Amino acid sequence: MSFSKPNYSAATLTTTRVTPAPVSGICVTCVDGCEGPCEIGRSALKGREVIYPAPFGTITSGSEKDYPVDFSHFNIQGTAVGAVGVEADPDIARFPNVDTKTAVGADGSIKMDFPVFTGAVGSTDIARINWEDAAVGAAISGVIVVAGENVCGMDPQAEIKNGRIVRSPEMERRVNAFKQWYTGSGGIIIQANVEDTKLGVPEYVIEKLGIEIFELKWGQGAKDIGGEVKLRSIERALQLNERGYIVLPDPTLPTSQEAFKAGGISEFERHSRLGMVEEESFHKSVEYLRKVGAKYVTLKTGAYRPADLARAIKYSSDAKIDLLTIDGAGGGTGMSPWRMMNEWGIPTVQLECLAYRMCERLAKKGAYIPPMAIAGGLSLEDHIFKAIALGAPYVKAICLGRAIFTAAMVGKTHGKLISQKMDLEGEDIEQGYLRLFAVGAELKERFGKDFAKLPPGAIGMYSYIDRMKQGLQQLMAGARKFALEHVDRNDLVALTKDAADVSGIDYVMDSDAKEVDEILG
Length: 521
Description:
By secondary structure, this protein is α/β, with parallel strands linked by helices. It has 20 helices and 19 strands.
């Protein structure tokens, strides 16, 4: 079987005329005269524009490759015996008493009410438009929100002097949206890539905006090149070209301007440069961030080859950073080359298992292992349990990119609908929210008169996390683990021999073999 679906996808708004050949994805009979609804055909007309999922700015996208081993190839072990973390008493060991709090930071001082945080919400249109919902949702949920790369550089109103950022109203908006609702748990992380570093973003957000957690970025699971967005006006393309970004096609060329005016091209692409990882420069960067005032320094790395994963873990260990996020293939993004998203990188399960082995090697030497987070195609409470168990005791949290955004966007959409209805009927928006959201009454009691000021997307995100909390509590109670720190690899069983070989988790038919022999005599 083929794990991939080349040449047609809902992500690129393409299809085939008849059943495609499984390897090429081309119709088994490609007919002369066909208008070409497939990726090849669309590329014959629009070329490089078809590389990316569409429509840009209103979607997130995730890989559709059917990887040979994923989290569904493991099940969670349950037991009828005992309880870990509480007294083994049916009146005490109840699932609502399961503790789902976690902590990251080298000293464990970044407290989180639930072990998830957002993916990096960067400079794409969909990230900008939905930031307030995600940031406020994170604040009231007691989790972390991450402002991704290029926010300052993409800000049309940014003030830049001598190549350095002086002020960014967009970054200020993002930071203030979180801080306004922050209640003491979770936090906001600002991320930087090559362009951000050149622009002086670290110094600006730390010294001027009071950011305590700063993240260096090596990459992500959806792509192994720098970030990119699409630009729909030649003025914007020229502005970002002048700021030093890679803009394609070159908007300063008369041929590009002519093609845009004629409609042959309808957009430009802004690309970030590739980062070049070196051990010495990494340590210097960490030291510099701490020197300018960063209380915590974190690292985000992507689905690169195993040697790069080893570098990330070893360098992070030596630098004693506060969080290492490892993003596997199969996850999503707001903007990435579609075939790259499907066909490059190490999938999440394999990447996490490699990371576990590497951490075990370092731990046996007495090395510091930074708190770790796993990302890449995860969305619900069983994923959270499995990913924490598979990487235990090193994995402390899960990065949910598209999943959290989905909840925020759905909440926002229904909030708009209910607001329109309230306006027509002359009712109070607060009553509309109470009818719309299951958590509405709870949040009203918590925030009082400020309840109606909450962005509806933030309420949707809070509701989604609240659902996952109860779901995770139920799964953990079934495994008789009453705090996250007690979840371990023995709480999983591999359903296939391949999954067992990849992970080192017992195959289902071999699980508990020694204890079974002891019980049966």
